[in-house]
Amino acid sequence: MQTGDSTRVLTDADKSKYVELGYLSLDSFLSEEWLRLLQATAQEFVELSRTVTGSGKLFDVEPNHTADEPRIRRLNSPVDNHAVFEEFALAGPAAQLAIELLGSPVRFHHSKLNFKWADGGEEVKWHQDIQFWPHTDFTPLTIGIYLDDVSQEMGPMGVLPGSHNGPLHDLYATDGSWAGALNDQVVKTLDMDKVKWLQGSAGSATIHNCCLIHGSMPNTGNRTRPLLLQTYSAEGSYPISGIGANGVTGAKSGTIIGGSPRQTLEIGGRAMHGAPDWSRQGAPTIFGSQQKETK
Length: 295
Fold this sequence. Notes:
Distance between the termini: 46 Å
Strand content: 15-25%
Largest sheet: 8 strands, antiparallel
Number of helices: 6
Shape: globular
Number of domains: 1
Radius of gyration: 20 Å
CATH topology: Jelly Rolls
CATH class: Mainly Beta
CATH superfamily: q2cbj1_9rhob like domain
């Protein structure tokens, strides 16, 4: 597949802004060729959604979704479901943007395509991402691409600048159930006058740190707001298994981009060189490993 490059490289000012504020908004980031390719691929899944009657492994749909009037909330793991999305996230502009911010190499975590359908597509309440899929550090970031022009009435992403340096909030409801959002009492303490609504033209990119407070309002416009999202971390940042969504992120999760895995990490200021990743082929016993070393 031959595609044009993105149209913007990050400046030192961009990188400094990201560190300070926890987000970036890059208008008209994609080349026209990449944008059209992603739009066409997304439309393929809209057509495919007409064959489903409810949410499942591939789609999360609104309750009133029908074949005649599809209303998709999310396409799950697009990277694992189409070669175009895979190339974009693992080798294309999104991957290169992650490398620019995090250094090379980076570790891919997951992807999703949130549609936020026209005429009432649901809000995303204020939250932070890291509680959904904890890592061994706070380098994870998410790169979003608007696949259509997004104005205020369409529910653009809203971010609270600098909140990535603040507390990590509890996203459980008062009854102890998982809510996936800040509770109302915490929201009342936030300075919402500082929220930045990231409107943009088709092909624009949003970037936000995993600790940044963000959300979006319902889409009251007459056009759908598809936002393609992909999450990366520094190579030495590892998702913690057994908590949140880390075990259900897709087959490509953990892919190293721009280099080879070094199996190095730092915990509590102490560095280590960990064993190879045996998750796919099975781990050897300590006896076999040690005996092989002495041969």
